């Protein structure tokens, strides 16, 4: 039932059995933002503008992101390993923090610099 309801971003974490951290750096002009509980242990937060969207996934089900192969492994400034991929005009970066797996999907009319995706990852709090 909750998967059909758009929730305010700041309360969506109350509906999953793990602590959800949110990104604080969003490099697009956000016109709409909302969160949806996709399943008992998966939450997505969506930030949209007219031509771009950023979806931040959070789940306690490690390994849920079934990417056939990542283009690149990145070591972040805090020592965390993140994985980057670009497929069909969607850029993705995935990493783990505090037993939660996160992923950011970016879709837009132009590619986003990888550094901007990394800034979003590092802004998670």
Compile the SSE list and pairings.
Elements: E1 32-39, E2 42-48, E3 52-59, E4 72-75, E5 81-87, E6 90-97, E7 100-108, H1 114-122
Q: How would you describe this structure to a colleague?
A:
With 125 residues, the chain is mostly beta strands. It has a single domain (2-122), classed as Phosphorylase Kinase, domain 1 (2-Layer Sandwich). It contains 1 helix and 7 strands; from the N terminus they run βββββββα. It has one helix at residues 114-122; strands spanning 32-39, 42-48, 52-59, 72-75, 81-87, 90-97, 100-108. A 7-stranded antiparallel beta sheet has the order 1-2-3-7-6-5-4, with helices on one face. It is globular, with a radius of gyration of 14 Å. The mean pLDDT is 87.
Largest sheet: 7 strands, antiparallel
Can you tell me the number of structural domains? Answer: 1
CATH class: Alpha Beta
Mean pLDDT: 87
Strand order, main sheet: write it out: 1-2-3-7-6-5-4
General shape: globular
The CATH topology name reads Phosphorylase Kinase, domain 1
CATH 2nd-level architecture: 2-Layer Sandwich
Oligomer: single chain
Helical region count?
Answer: 1
Summarize the helix and strand pattern as letters.
EEEEEEEH
Decide which structural class fits the backbone.
mainly beta
Low-confidence stretches: none
Strand content: 35-45%
What's the Cα radius of gyration? 14 Å
Number of strands: 7
| N-to-C CA distance | 28 Å
| Helix proportion | under 10%
Protein name: DUF4367 domain-containing protein
């Amino acid at each position: 039932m909750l998967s059909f309801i758009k929730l305010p971003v700041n309360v969506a974490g109350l509906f999953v059995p793990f602590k959800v951290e949110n990104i604080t750096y969003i490099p697009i002009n956000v016109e709409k933002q909302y969160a949806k509980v996709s399943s008992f242990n998966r939450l997505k937060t969506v930030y949209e503008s007219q031509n771009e969207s950023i979806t931040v996934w959070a789940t306690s089900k490690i390994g849920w992101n079934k990417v056939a192969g990542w283009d690149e492994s990145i070591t972040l400034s805090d020592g965390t390993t993140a994985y980057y991929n670009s497929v069909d005009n969607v850029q993705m970066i995935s990493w783990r923090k505090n037993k939660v797996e996160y992923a950011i999907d970016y879709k837009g009319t132009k590619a986003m610099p990888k550094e901007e995706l990394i800034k979003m990852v590092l802004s998670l709090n």
